[in-house]
Design a protein that fits this description.
The chain is built from two helices and 20 strands. With about 300 residues, the protein is mainly β.
């Protein structure tokens, strides 16, 4: 398809000539394009909007509009709204899940919003402490008609929850994972993919805006048993100075999409997008100065 080159760590400029607000990104393939939802960081870490973009090559981005906008209560402009992730419910409607919090990060809830199409606008429905647990950085996963929430709970670890049938709440805990060296903690910014008969769960250590060596674990079933955590990139590279946000199936392979946070200029923080090699039970991220998704599509004959 002659996709445009991606330059990892270089901010994406949208079709309006502005830095694309793709922070804490969620991604879905819809038809012949990828749709992305990201935190608009124009006001720093406080909420302004969840912006929606689309792309056919993960390099050039078209602004589609704001999917969720600031309002009252938990969506007020003094609140934290992060990690927008979107699933299409089997009935056709779209469900957005977000991390909701106060400015001091003391409420730690997950929020749910719905829309009739992927761009929205989304209508906020409810929030919860899933099964009474804190919920900070989140991810989502879908298999068949079942939806799953991945949620970092600072007190108990990283949970994989099965969502209710309507996707607007949590039904049960499928598994809870913790760090080997610090078993009281889990990993944040989780994302999950399936490759062959195995599930790969990725996460980042708890180091505020600073980057770290992200990890992954592997299992034959969502309930486990899960392997020990392993380094995703060469140790000491801090995952090429990024924090995983999503791992995206592209053709026969996968693309890693991570944030490179610039604490005092969050609006301009770039993404690091790289090809990710996944084999039977291993995942390996390698640095590229530039690349295009044609590499993954050609391997699939696409």
């Amino acid at each position: 398809m002659n996709a445009k080159d991606i330059v990892p760590g270089e901010a994406f400029i949208d079709d309006r000539g502005r830095v694309a607000q793709l922070h804490g990104i969620g991604l879905q393939r819809i038809g012949d394009r990828w749709y992305a939802w990201g935190e608009d960081k124009a006001a720093g870490d406080r909420f302004t909007a969840v912006s929606c973009y689309s792309s056919d090559d993960l390099a050039t981005w078209r602004y589609e509009g704001d999917s969720l906008v600031a309002g009252a209560g938990e969506l007020a402009t003094d609140r934290i709204v992060e990690r927008p992730k979107v699933l299409q419910h089997p009935d056709g409607r779209w469900v957005m899940l977000v991390h909701l919090d106060t400015a001091d990060y003391t409420t730690a809830r997950v929020g749910y919003a719905i829309a009739d199409d992927p761009v929205g606008p989304y209508e906020f429905v409810r929030s919860e402490l899933p099964l009474g647990n804190q919920s900070r950085d989140i991810g989502v996963f879908q298999e068949g008609e079942a939806g799953y929430l991945l949620s970092e709970d600072r007190d108990n670890g990283l949970h994989i929850y099965r969502l209710r049938d309507d996707y607007l709440g949590v039904d049960s805990i499928v598994a809870t994972l913790r760090q080997q060296d610090r078993p009281e903690l889990g990993y944040e910014s989780p994302t999950l993919v399936k490759h062959g008969a195995r599930y790969f769960l990725f996460g980042s250590d708890l180091t505020y805006w600073n980057m770290n060596d992200n990890k992954y674990a592997v299992a034959p079933a969502l309930a486990g048993p899960w392997s020990a955590w392993r380094d995703l990139a060469p140790p000491g590279t801090n995952t090429f100075e990024s924090q995983v946000s999503v791992v995206l199936p592209v053709g026969a392979g996968f693309a890693y999409v991570g944030d490179r946070w610039t604490e005092h200029d969050l609006e301009s923080s770039p993404l690091v997008v790289l090809p990710l090699r996944i084999t039977d039970d291993r995942a390996e991220l390698e640095w590229r100065e530039r690349w295009s998704i044609d590499e993954l599509l050609s391997a699939d004959g696409g």
